[in-house]
Amino acid sequence: MDLGENIGSEENKIRPVVVIQSNAYNFKSPVFTGAIISSSTLTIPDIQILITGVYPFKDENGVQKNLVGAIDLGQIKTIGKERIVSSKICDLVNEINEIDNKLLNIFGLSNIIKKKDNIINSLNGKVIYLKEQLKDNT
User: Fold this and answer.
1) pLDDT at 130
2) Between the CA atoms of 38, 44, 45 and 47, what dihedral angle is there, to the nearest 10 degrees?
3) 134: containing domain
4) Contact 77, 34 (CB under 8 A)
5) How many C-beta atoms lie closer than 10 Å to residue 134's C-beta?
6) Is 100 a domain residue?
7) DSSP 72-112
8) N or C: which end of the chain has fewer CB within 10 A?
9) pLDDT for 26 beyond 80
10) Is 14 in contact with 1 (CB distance < 8 Å)?
């Protein structure tokens, strides 16, 4: 992704990004939401995810490389599709669950989902109990 002219300490360079929105929305929209991949392997645990898988790709000069670094969920940006300089290079299969979990934490949704899961588990237990009661009464 060519992120164009930047301000302050931002770097002007072509960087890989992770698309973090649904494919249905991406198809029709002129923009997409992505998280920058930093070349640094130092991470801030709450908002960054170290890339642990091996993902080969060719850079903008055609040089074969492996994707390395960290996905920085602190650098989520809405980016115009005209800034795309190459096509999709990989699916981050090793990192996707951690991306999902950290996004839920960043947006404050983890506790809501845990509460929902607890309610569902409790209701499932009640359903099982009531089914057993019905069997015993018939």
Assistant:
1) 93
2) -70
3) 108-138
4) yes
5) 9
6) no
7) EEEEEEEEEGGG--S------TTTHHHHHHHHHHHTT-HHH
8) C
9) no
10) yes
Claim to verify: residue 53 and residue 82 sit in the same structural domain:
yes
| Residue 27, pLDDT above cutoff 80 | no
- Nearest CA to 105 among 17, 65, 45, 15? 45
DSSP characters over 110-137: HHHHHHHHHHHHHHHHHHHHHHHHHHHH
pTM: 0.69
pLDDT for the residue numbered 124: 92
Contact 89, 16 (CB under 8 A): yes
| pLDDT in the model for residue 12 | 64
The number of distinct structural domains making up the chain is 2
Q: Which residue in the block uniquely carries the two structure tokens 């929105």?
A: 21
3-state secondary structure of 24: helix
Specify the pLDDT at position 2: 54
Query: In the predicted model, is pLDDT for residue 115 greater than 80?
Result: yes
138 shares a domain with 86 = no
